[in-house]
């Protein structure tokens, strides 16, 4: 080896401990930057996106140092920043379906989406949380060994520790570079590792249980306000509804709202007063506003769901203590108190004479035999136990929430009966309107033609002897009237129940509609059986109405009809590339389609942003034959 090479290697070994010390300072800065980012981002000023983008400077520095000192460059993993919002021709700034006069709000929202949807943001935050425990401890080993050697220079072990610290410097830098690449390098598109697949969902469950613990305190305060005065009941209901949706989303189950429907506005009596009765009492109000407030209070007080909400708000802190706090305490205490804090105090004890405090002293006050055990030997198993039990405890918490926050069987049946009464009334109204239409078509169409044909036959009867030529002309006219009446009858029958629907089923009927549509239509069908004939007719006429709307109002060039069946639900989707902007109740027939489907417990979901595309999704519960 040449002299220059020897000097280069010597310099690398000499600089490695100093570089490790710099990496330790970077690790110590991580908690500070993390706390500042969290506080400023939640404050919302000037912008969470700006705060997170500025916080990326620390991971960027670590990425640059690790790539430079370990010999493996680490590329930036971030998505490119969004373009500033542009003004439309009408002077508005658009963000999704919302319009703004100023570009500040859409730019603010676009920045939020940029940092929130970038996976590198979460990886940066995880790195700042874990680097003091992993990278900082790893980089601190060579400086600590050298520091211990300087303090114990009068003993051989001191010289050995210092030599080991110098020798381990380059290898430590390479290991630190590999650790930095784990979270700060761009992610290659491949499956997650088994360790990450096990850890990620359990860590998510721990964070959710921590949120449950924090939210239970707010719930307890709302329970006190709930009892203190009725004015807090609406706020408590909104909070409980949000928690109901949150618990359902976290546990993969939908928890319906159990509240009774809000009462109608009070009607004035003969004397002009508004009477509101409550249990064995009643009052007369001269103001409709006061009467409405009294009736709303009566509605809230008599609704059993209000008292179940109060019971849940009161019991939620106890559930948090029993179900949520243990895994959170095990993970936080095991990683932070017994792992991270013990590591740093043990390192300080090596370089600071007389420093003897250790977090294990607190553990020793409970179990004296554990005071001398290294913290990570207890902390890592404790954190693993917390991670292992967190998903099961989160599911158990969701079941407890479901017991108190879901509708009771009685309330569910009551709401079901009310829904059925409304839908059946709508179906009866639709049937009556359909019968009136058929009667009108028969009266104004076929019946009028048959009457005219009878009159023509009478005229021909009188002319047949005197003017055979005129009689033949009248008979030809009667023949034409008979053909026209027959054609109208066929059209009317087809409108009642198309023959192709009865003969060949819904798929071929929809294909026929697509061929008759005034634009390019593509039909995609995936059915393994045949629905009930009444359901087929409802879907057929709904699709026919939608195609008519598309041809009249959408200015579309193509429409796609998709028909599938899964999980006991028949789903039909009609998508067009038109201008969008369709809304129910705007005279487009969508409300009629919704009423038609509601008679079969079906639903119509419409997505039609300005500029398109328009997607109408119909779902009906059914079983295929």
What does this structure look like?
The mean pLDDT is 78. The longest helix is centred in the C-terminal third of the chain and has 58 residues, at 409-466. The chain has 4 domains: 9-79 and 118-186, no CATH class; 203-260 and 291-407, no CATH class; 421-494, Single alpha-helices involved in coiled-coils or other helix-helix interfaces (Up-down Bundle); 499-621, Heat Shock Protein 90. It has helices at 3-43, 48-55, 57-70, 104-117, 119-130, 135-151, 156-184, 194-228, 233-251, 288-302, 304-351, 360-366, 375-405, 409-466, 468-496, 499-516, 533-554, 590-598; strands at residues 93-95, 98-100, 274-278, 281-285, 520-526, 558-566, 569-576, 603-607, 614-621. Helices cover 68% and strands 8% of the residues. The strands form 3 sheets. The chain has a 5-stranded mixed β-sheet, covered by helices on one side. A two-stranded antiparallel sheet has the order 1-2. It has a two-stranded antiparallel sheet with strand order 3-4. Strand 3 and strand 4 form a beta hairpin. It is of the alpha+beta class. It is elongated and about 145 Å long. It has 18 helices and 9 strands. Helix 8 (194-228) packs across helix 13 (375-405).
